[in-house]
Amino acid sequence: MLIQNLSWWPFRLPFAGAFGTARSSLNQREGWIIQIQTDTGLTGLGEASPLPEFGGGTPADVLRLLEKWHPLLIGQPIDCGMRLRPLMWEADQSADAPGLAAFLCGLDIALTDVLSQTEGKSLAEWLAGRPVAESVLVNATIGTPDNSKAAILAQKAVADGFECVKLKVGMAAGVSGELERVQAVRAAIGKTTRLRLDANGAWKPEEAITILRELEPLGIELVEQPVAAHDLAGMAQVRRVLKHIPIAADEAITNVASAQAVIAAGAADILVIKPMMVGGLRAGLELIKIAQRAGLGAFVTTTIDSGIGIAAALHLAATLPEPLLACGLATASLLQDTLVQELPIIKNGRMFLPDSAGLGMVLK
């Protein structure tokens, strides 16, 4: 089975409301929907939407790669993805070339969509090589910088059945500001709902230790990327000092080498795996196995993608071993549209896999 055609379309999806991180205020998500058609009539969909704010390149960078590699992909076997990956990295000089991870992710999703359809399996089953659960535990994500609105949204999430809430932090003024923000959300969700924090690398190590010590009594499940991704020594320091708040490496995880560096430094208890940041589903699966071998936890999140990216991340998350940490997949409500006819269903804090072979998504 050969690749007969590769096409792509741009998209721009505004956020449904104010959404901030410690790095910036995000207003929209931009990227490309990728479609692969085979000589047997099968079609696979993918998404390549980099995050410029986090060093992932721009949509223009992805377009450059699409235009460069399009002629070379036509006529290639549909299982060419993993063989082409090192060639692309070599051709673009670095695994960190702007837009490359998102491009590889979009291509990998589309290719594996076709490959799993060919075997009549869901993409999750095809990736795992075994039966998987029909649903995945997910968390709600709260990114509004307004504390009152954050509390209202968190309370609504609990009413909707979510058992875990992730709150963006690192935007408030000093220790008292961070404490006030987290206290407001904890009061809104009660004592039993799990509360995790995402600092997006906002704090210096000593600052992170001071703030998180103050927040410990509020029952924090974990904190994602408390210090800058490049400061593995600082992450390790925070982890050594804070005994009751697990540290999750998020932006620090971009490929196998980065994961191995995090593990060697003793910088994290958990790896956060984002397909769009690590170069696709098969790359994400490899990182899950690395975390397992190292005795670390892992969970999967989107990068606030369209419905194509959400479904792809869901299929990868379904391959995770038990006990399962909630995954950051319930992000569709953060955008004004998702581009797909029907999103995976979320019920009682769990997202259900599509009941079809492959990725299971249809564009509007």
Using DSSP, what is the number of strands?
13
Strand content: 15-25%
The general outline is globular
Distance between the termini: 27 Å
Specify the number of helices.
12
**How large is the radius of gyration?**
20 Å
- Tell me the structural class: alpha/beta
Count of folded domains: 2
What is the assembly state of the chains in this entry? single chain
Strand line-up in the sheet with most strands: 5-6-7-8-9-10-11
| Unreliable runs | none
Highest CATH level, the class of the largest domain: Alpha Beta
The CATH architecture assignment of the largest domain turns out to be Alpha-Beta Barrel
Instruction: State the share of residues found in helices, binned by percent.
Output: 25-40%
Order of helices and strands: EEEHHHHEEHEHEHEHEHEHHEHEE
The biggest beta sheet reads: 7 strands, parallel
Mean of the pLDDT scores?
93
- The CATH superfamily of the largest domain turns out to be Enolase-like C-terminal domain
| CATH fold group of the largest domain | TIM Barrel
Task: Explain what this protein looks like in three dimensions.
The chain is 38% helix and 21% strand. It is α/β, with parallel strands linked by helices. It folds into two domains: 3-121, Enolase-like, domain 1, CATH 3.30.390.10; 127-352, Enolase-like C-terminal domain (TIM Barrel), CATH 3.20.20. The strands form three sheets. The protein has a seven-stranded parallel β-sheet with strand order 5-6-7-8-9-10-11. A three-stranded antiparallel β-sheet has the order 1-2-3. Strands 4-13-12 form a three-stranded antiparallel β-sheet, with no helix packed on it. Helix 6 (174-189) packs parallel to helix 7 and helix 7 packs parallel to helix 8 (232-241). The protein is globular and about 60 Å long. The chain starts with a strand and ends in a 12-residue tail after the last strand.
